[in-house]
Amino acid sequence: MASKIISGIASIEVNTSDPFQLFYLWKEEAFRCLSKPNTLNVMNLATSSKDGCVSNRNIQILRYDPDGFVFLTDSSSRKAKDIADNPNVASTFLWCYSNDGGEIITKQIRLQGVINKLDLDQTKELYDAAPTFRKIRYNVCKQGLIVDQKEIKKIHDKILEDVENGRILEMPSYVAAYKLLPSAMEFYYGYDNFTADRVLFTYRGNNWNYVHLSA
Ligand SMILES: Cc1cc2nc3c(=O)[nH]c(=O)nc-3n(C[C@H](O)[C@H](O)[C@H](O)COP(=O)(O)O)c2cc1C
C-alpha cells in the first residue's frame, strides 16, 4: 500500500488593511513561541552602493513604529554610506518555530522601501535607553576600521573600568539612528509540509492594498 502523503496548502488570513497590524500579530506569536527573544528583533538588511554593489547584514530593531523599523548603527559604516548614496533598501525577518499546536511554522516578512536618518534627539533617546554593555560596544567600535583585537580589548577594559568607577558613557558622534519606511511588505507563511502562501501589501495613494502571490 502506498504511504500516505502529508501535504496541503497554507493560507494567510488577512483581517486588516494595515500590514503593520499583521506584522505585529505575527511577531507576537513568534516571540511567544521562540525561546530566545533577544535574537527575534534581528532583521536582515540589504543596501546598495552608488555603483550598484549590493551588501547585506543583520541588524537589531530597537523601535517598532507604526510606519517603520528603527535601528542604531555607525554613520561611518558601509551600510550608512550606501544609505546616504541610495536610500532604497530591502530587508527580511525570518521566524521559524514550533507553535502552540506543535506545527512547524515558517514565516518571512520581506520589506522594500527607503531609509531615513533620524534626528539627534531620537538617536540620543535610543542610545540612552541601551543597556550599559551596548553603550560600551558603541564606544569601543568604529565600524569598518581595520583593528588589532588586542588593542580593542585594552580600550574596552579601560572603558569598563571607568564605567565601574562611575563614568557616564556619552554617545559617540558617529552613532546614528535610521528608520526603514516600507512601501511594500510581503508575508510568507508555511507550516509543516504544506505549500506556503504569500501576501504582498503595497502602499499607493495613501492606502495599502494586497494580493496573494504564488509561493
Ligand atoms: C544578531 C546581530 C545583530 C546586529 N545588530 C546590529 C545593529 O543593530 N547595528 C549595527 O550597526 N550592526 C549590527 N550587527 C552587526 C552587523 O551585522 C554588521 O556586521 C555591521 O553593522 C557592519 O555592517 P556594514 O559594514 O555592512 O555597515 C549585528 C550583527 C548580528 C549578528
Mean of residue pLDDT values: 93
CATH topology name, in short, is Pnp Oxidase, Chain A
CATH H level, superfamily name: Electron Transport, Fmn-binding Protein, Chain A
Tell me which ligands are bound. flavin mononucleotide
What would you note in describing this structure?
By secondary structure, the chain is α+β, with helices and mostly antiparallel strands. 27% of the residues lie in helices and 38% in strands. Strands 1, 2, 3, 4, 5, 6, 7, 8 and 9 form a nine-stranded antiparallel β-sheet that branches. Helix 4 crosses helix 5. The mean pLDDT is 93.
Short description:
By secondary structure, the chain is α+β, with helices and mostly antiparallel strands. It has 5 helices and 9 strands; from the N terminus they run αββββαββαααβββ.
Secondary structure elements and pairings:
Elements: H1 19-33, E1 42-48, E2 54-60, E3 63-65, E4 68-74, H2 78-85, E5 88-98, E6 104-117, H3 120-129, H4 132-140, H5 149-164, E7 175-191, E8 197-204, E9 207-213
Antiparallel strand pairs: 1-2, 1-5, 3-4, 4-7, 5-6, 6-7, 7-8, 8-9
Helix pairs in contact: 4-5
